[in-house]
Amino acid sequence: MLKPESLTERQALQVEPMPRVLLRLTLSCLLLIAVALLLVYQLTWRPPAHELLTASCSTAVQAPKLVPGQALKVMTWNIQYLAGKRYVFWYDMADGSGPDERPTPEDLAYNLDEVARVIRDEQPDIVLLQGVDDGAKNSDYQDQQKLLQERLADLYPCSTQAFYWKAEFVPSPHIWGSVGRKLTTLSRFHIDSAERLQLPVPDANIISRQFQPKNALLVSYLPLRDGGKLAVINTHLATAKPGDGTAQKQIAATETLLDKLEGGGTPWLIGGDFNLLPLGQYQRLPEQQRISYATDSELHALWEKYPMIPNNTESSGTDRSQWLTHFPNDSRINGPDRTVDYLFYSPSLKRVSARVRRDDTLLISDHLPVIGRFLLPVLP
Predict the structure, then answer these.
(1) Phi, psi at residue 156, to the nearest 5°?
(2) 49-375: CATH homologous superfamily?
């Protein structure tokens, strides 16, 4: 005679499969997480803290070496990936509400020719460009450095480059594809070597951080004919967010490099989009435009030590309109209203002249080119 099951035994039989279901669900979730992390790892870019780069010099044109004591003309310009000024992009608004996501192919082509025109007209010895796209979906996967060099090959036999934003896929509805943005340095003079130095990145969770820009210093070393070298540094610092500490950290890392070069007797200059205001401009901005800046500019750590173009007297003085370098993509703003692009240089170099080219560049980019002319030091 079969013994009837007790209530406890029947309950145990009913409950027993549940741990197996939970185990399968847990394992499935862990597998999905692992696949997602692997996908993020494969789609994104993690540059080393220090990377040696190869300078590219044409064999068709023999690039000369710099001569101690010679004049040197340098231009820095954030070309905004050749997008032009007919847009208010989603990222131009603090809340991400800008209506535009990408420029048209026609605007990319027009602004490519315009940037080449300005460079050819100025013919600086060294050109420091920021916001140069390479392989980005929203700029039609162009290699913009290559396109520019094809138009300027007779002027600049040497170049260096370093990415500061790169990913095969960014899962943002405004991008939903690849990004690639780099610093480009063009030189009429020979470049021996170069290196990329990673700057501190903004705080973010481990996933978001993989898709964000990774700002850097591109350092190019130009040999002097009688020995020694000139260090030329190109950079684009992160968009400032007061209180998060990123600007201070990036400026501190930059200062460390400049101090090292200066202490070692190596003449240097640095140019780029620093995304920081000079002394006195914060108070002149409308309140809604101050959100990205600190009352006390983090840039003071550099200007207190080293000469800059434009200096604080120029950028905040009676003729300050001549030294404004940024024309934000914002329908409320009808012209350049702040300075965020600069050239800093070693005290061993002598400033001869400087200016911001404004009249024919207002519609090419949201930044204006800053141009400086220097005398290199004479070796003892």
Answers:
(1) -130, 90
(2) Endonuclease/exonuclease/phosphatase (3.60.10.10)
